[in-house]
Amino acid sequence: MDIIEAIMTRRSIRHFTGELIRDEDLETILKAGFQAPSAHNKQPWEFVVLRDREKLRAIKEFHKYAKMVEDAGTAIVVCGDKNKQDRMGFLVADTSAAIQNMLLAAHGLNLGAVWCGIYDSNSLVEFFSQLLKLLENILPIGMVVVGNKIRDRSIQDRYDETKIHYDEW
Questions:
Q1: Pick from 19, 24, 23: nearest CA to 147
Q2: Other CB atoms within 10 Å distance of the CB of residue 40
């Protein structure tokens, strides 16, 4: 898939077959996350791959926007290491770039994926920190839920010229 086509056709997918994605595809998605740009090249991301049904079920019960996680069978919690990047804005931007790369990789592999936010909801941060036994310096930012999709969603053109400004507002 051409990169422009991937960007223009990627959609959040929330309905999955329940069949696990292949290990090779998971590795490709993770590698894409590692290729993201980061401020000062600090690469503060850490990835926690979840396939444990009990943990996925716990997430489904706690995170109201992640009800699909158990059906997908795989989730990647993207965390930021505050010891590697102490500027919160950069930490969030860096990990978000990794998430976007993973979403595009999943789409390129013809898998379904959706980004579920974690940071900066205090209750979600605390829940994931405890569930995953994260170290104090590791902050959960977001979760990529990925699986074999039941169907594609229609493509939407979101281009909006009214939001483009040249040289000044």
A1: 19
A2: 11
Residue 37 contacts by C-beta under 8 Å, 6 or more apart in sequence? 94, 97
CB contact set of 58 (below 8 Å; sequence gap of 6+):
131
| Tally of CB atoms within 10 A around 73 | 20
In this predicted model, what pLDDT tens digit does every residue of 48-81 receive, in sequence order?
Answer: 999 999 999 999 999 999 999 999 999 999 999 9
Q: Determine contact, residues 44/94, Cβ cutoff 8 Å.
A: yes
Mean pLDDT value of segment 22-33? 98
| Phi, psi dihedral angles at 119 (to 5 degrees) | -80, 135
pTM: 0.96
Residues in the chain: 169
How far apart are alpha carbons 56 and 58 in whole angstroms? Answer: 5
Give 3-17 as a DSSP string. HHHHHHH------B-
CA distance 100 to 122: 23
Phi (first) and psi of residue 165, to 5 degrees: -130, 135
**C-beta separation of 28 from 146 below 8 A:** no
